[in-house]
Amino acid sequence: MPVFSVEQYPKMKKNSSLLLLIIPIALLLFDACRKQDLISNDSALKLTFSTDSVVFDTVFTSIGTSTRRLMIYNTSNKRLNISSIQVGENGGSVFRLNVDGTPGLAFENIEIAANDSLFVFVRATIDPLNVDNPFVVEDDLVFLINGNIQKVKLIAWGQDANYIIADQIVKKFPKFKIVADSLQTVHWTAGKPYVVYGYALIDSYGELIIDEGARVYFHDKSGLWAFSDGVLKVRGTLENPVIFQGDRLEQEYRDIPGQWDRIWLMDGRQGFDHEIDYAIIRNGFIGIQAESFLKATANNLILRNTIIENQTGMGIFTRLFAIDASNLVVANCGNYSMALSIGGDYRFMHTTVANNWSLSTRNNPSILLNNYTFDSLDVAIPVPFNLVMGNSIIYGSNSEEIETDFVGGADSTYLFDHCLVKTERKLSSFPGFADCFKNQDPLFKDYEAFDYHPDTLSPVIGKGKIDYSNIVPNDLDGVSRLPLPDLGAYQFVPKIN
Predict the structure, then answer these.
(1) Residues 305-323: pLDDT tens digits?
(2) Nearest to 82 by CA among 35, 123, 117
(3) What residues have CB less than 8 Å from 182, skipping those under 6 apart?
(4) Confidence class of residue 6 from pLDDT cuts 50, 70 and 90?
(5) Contacts of 114 by beta carbon, 8 Å cutoff, 6+ apart
(6) Cα(177)–Cα(189) distance, rounded to whole angstroms?
(7) Nearest Cα residue to 162 out of 131, 187, 195, 132
(8) Rounded to the nearest 5°, which phi and psi values hold at 92?
(9) Is 459:442 a contact under the CB 8 Å cutoff?
């Protein structure tokens, strides 16, 4: 038996008193935790949710859409057991689940701690139906807990489509599917949209005509490709433009650039021009790439009434090509808005180039003009270059938005006539600028909403040259420019009180 000295006794007595105080508190805490860990069967306790409905924007049939997240909350002080979670009371649906990291069609006995939460992720895949217009698919996400049934509504808008799936590979080229073969003319119409995986290819001597109101949606890294001597005709109208964009139609993807690759046009025969009229080309890497590939092109790109916007790379990229454009908007590009390289012949009337790109650092100006390439010994080869840009706007967030990169040895001229330009140049010292003014904010209505109409106090109002407006008398909205034309693709229209 231990023997304690008189000096140790008071200390032991003090420690014993402390233990007598701690033990009951610990027992109470343990009991509280034990009670909290018990699953409650109280039918009055229910779940709460982050939303009462999970809504998907348009979903192409047979293609899964993006994932939607639903949060489940247990706001009580009791642990709960969810007897079952499933879509629809019979378990069959276009919707698929992932509950707290586990995929499946239905789930049973999912516990949720007091004052805790669970993640539920939902995807939708809609089977093909032979309809042209969007249709709605609805179902319920059903929870059974303590004898109670709780529901969250699931809603998806479905759309059947024509699917273009690449099936051929040629070395050094992207995977493609021929959609217009040699000596074949093919129409894409305004019924079902076209969803492209890989590249849709117009072969040599083939022609693809895209009718007004058609919608072309591209999957990641996909595009439309007119091979040498192939011909593209895009025939939109003011009321029914042709749409080119990525295949993610959810609202959060509306203004995300870089979702697809490009429209790629190659050299052609004289009299067989590429034509794009009333098109909207959005959210890709390069809007239009037009280049002489196998030979110097003898055809043109006729570009009318078209918007090219929100490209991670360039809006227009050319190599030794010819473009005749009017009522054109090229906006918000991460690199050059227009890179006109290795010579060529260009005319742009009533064009708005606006570049306030903010998603990354933009080191290049809006426009590049270049008149040479390199041979195998890295020696510059000059190529003739000609540009006329009239009644236009070249403006952006950089202090210099026009770059000229010329070498001698080839006829190379450029003329900006009656334009608003953003530049550090002293315009009077450069003969390529005639009746231009610089560095005045054009006061577009809404940069963030990509609305490049001039606002009430815009300095571009009434500054146009009538000669150019006689060639293009109506603006991109069909509004008359005469008798006092503005600069850019849009004519100012005063509000009527």
Answers:
(1) 999 999 999 999 999 999 9
(2) 117
(3) 203, 204, 205, 206
(4) very low
(5) 36, 74, 76, 77, 78, 79
(6) 18
(7) 195
(8) -105, 130
(9) yes
